[in-house]
Amino acid sequence: MSNDAMKKITTKAREAARKLGILSTEKKDKILRAMADGIDSAREEIKKANEEDIAKAEKGGKNPAFIDRLRLGDKSVDGMCSMMKEVAELKDPVGDVLDRNERPNGLVVEKVRVPIGVIGIIYESRPNVTADCVALCLKSGNAVILRGGSDAIASNKAIYRAMRKAASKEGLSEGAFILIEDTSRELVDAMLKASDGIDLIMPRGGESLIQQVAEKSRIPVIKHYKGICHVYVDADADMKMAEEICFNAKAQRPGVCNAMETMLVHERIAGEFLPRMAEKFIKAGVVLKGCSRTREILTGRDIKKVKDEDFTTEYLDLILNIRVVGSLDEAIDHISRFGSDHSDAIVTGNTGNAGEFTRRVDSAAVYVNASTRFTDGGEFGKGAEIGISTDRLHARGPMGLEELTTYKYVVNGSGQVRT
Amino acid sequence: MSNDAMKKITTKAREAARKLGILSTEKKDKILRAMADGIDSAREEIKKANEEDIAKAEKGGKNPAFIDRLRLGDKSVDGMCSMMKEVAELKDPVGDVLDRNERPNGLVVEKVRVPIGVIGIIYESRPNVTADCVALCLKSGNAVILRGGSDAIASNKAIYRAMRKAASKEGLSEGAFILIEDTSRELVDAMLKASDGIDLIMPRGGESLIQQVAEKSRIPVIKHYKGICHVYVDADADMKMAEEICFNAKAQRPGVCNAMETMLVHERIAGEFLPRMAEKFIKAGVVLKGCSRTREILTGRDIKKVKDEDFTTEYLDLILNIRVVGSLDEAIDHISRFGSDHSDAIVTGNTGNAGEFTRRVDSAAVYVNASTRFTDGGEFGKGAEIGISTDRLHARGPMGLEELTTYKYVVNGSGQVRT
After folding, report:
1. Count of domains in chain A?
2. Do B296 and B344 fall within a single domain?
3. Closest to B72 measured CA to CA, from B145, B32, B131, B123
4. Are residues B195 and B265 in the same domain?
5. What is the pLDDT of residues A363-390, one digit of tens each?
6. B9 and B90 co-located in one domain
7. What is the pLDDT of residues B54-84, one digit of tens each?
8. What domain range includes position B356?
9. Would you tell me which residues 382-401 of chain B have a C-beta closer than 8 angstroms to some C-beta of chain A?
10. Nearest CA to B198 among B180, B211, B172?
């Protein structure tokens, strides 16, 4: 039953994807702007639907953080509208010639950017994901199938209706973006098996959702998994710079994946650096967990003993592990062993050590003398992002419009045959 | 049991991959040349082991084509040696800066090519795959775990020993390339579950192997699946050119994935083109299957009636489907419906139609006025290939050294923090 329903959905999406792949940039941008206006006009309807979801969540005893993620106020609606308009302003990646190679036999081999095709998004309770994903997939020429969580279904439907109405007026076929209203588990399972109809699955949400999707999917998955990010303060670091970077990486916004969870400090400067740094952290309410040498240096302060499992925990909170290391090697080994290959930084004035660190630390983003907090589509100049890949294939780090494309080879000849 | 064995293997490979990723080009090339010499020196041992495999295959009643794929003569051994040396000559892609973006805050964001990590190859009875994959993975900085079929195990072990001996003398750690000698199904299953230890699985072999791997794998897979390739002869085609391209695409080497399986001919020229073309094909022993209009035009010749299932069959043989179409649209629709997105060509003198065809046909390689037979790493200027991807993510079409890499962002700052 779910498989049949899914087949109908993917057939529609596949047909739409063929047309979307060759739709002009002008037309796509016009649709994006129309959808922005559509969401704006449907503001009251969207907010009312959202209140329904919130009432249900409160009745169900969901925690305040959950309800906060679910809530759509005027500011969130404004945000969706301006996001749509911003995406309309971004450069269209489709059709870019990535490489051109004239062969000795006269064949001209061009590598040309094309959309991936049909993208499936499985997400939880943030309703603005609905608008984000439609905008980015449309601009990059992909059809998208959205399966949001049951907690946000009324909000998602209201946002979808507003976008759909505007898009239909512009002649965009229904398959270009589809919201699945059936929030059953069976339908997700059917979706993850639809390898003929969907080219890529992107789960967005908590660890357990992502693990389930990765476990079950027969379709390629790009995951946005956890960020265990490190800052290593080298012996040759500028102390003031190190202090600012570490503080920013931990405390500026602790609830995000690119925030620091563990600070590594070279033993040669630990005695000078740690007391100043600890004071700053403690003042800001950061709970510190340290190795034995850290706790020695910070005697008298309330520093908990850090355990191995702390080093693999994504706190997303004002908690920080501190470890004193004897060398750059030891820092790199710690990151290889406990890190999640997301974002890691070195603070150093030594260019040799900086080079060694960036070569050997194999994370999606490796920083020299900057905060890990910059791992973000906007900060990297991509304009917008659909997620941050912690996988190694196809896309690593922030995924913008370009990362939602693949390529094909277009080969122009004048009668060449192979001998 | 198999899972434990696999864990040991992947741990060794992962450690080796870390070192390989930063090994200098000079060192990698030196190892490649040493391995070429090693295979050359072990020639008699390799041929003797191969004879064992062949005797077993003959006793087991394997067909001549199978035994042909399995056989290693002096020419095949020479081929492996020269391949290794050629790979040593290829440009090392690791470390290439793909993109550089200086941000308004002064951060310099570079996108740098890095190896994928640990690659698993599951293959059948061609023993030269053992040498090919080791060479290409080593040059691109990846560790590789090889699991060949039981039919070629003696040959694979002999080739492996020769390479291993030479590589060890050069100090390359054992984990850099590992041949799994356990050819049980349980071990393959364990391999496909080892998502922490292996980053990419590439199956090489027949349809059923590929399907099984894709079905079971918890690790990203890039498949080299079937090629249902088309040549469309447009109304504005140069007849002589069309004849040569179609003949080459079908008959030059029919047993390969980029050979044509279906020829589409515009109705306006079918009456003139088909009789000449058919004569040439029939003379070369090609069995023709045609639509009703084809059979009308070719009345008197022995043309079988083509069925829908023929259009999705990869013959890999001197058999060809022919269909007369009323328009470019109809040709494109046929390719979308029946094709495998591998390689498709248009022969036309009309640049508008050529553009329409290359935009709308979404295959890994789309040709204008050239044979589909050019879809090949060497022909595209990649120097060597590990396979031809029929998937859409990460790599499409011929996969050379670059396609065996991914990237990371290296961000250089001067103390930047996020506000």
Report:
1. 2
2. yes
3. B131
4. no
5. 999 999 999 999 999 999 998 899 999 9
6. yes
7. 999 999 999 888 898 899 999 999 999 999 9
8. 229-374
9. 391-394, 396-397
10. B180
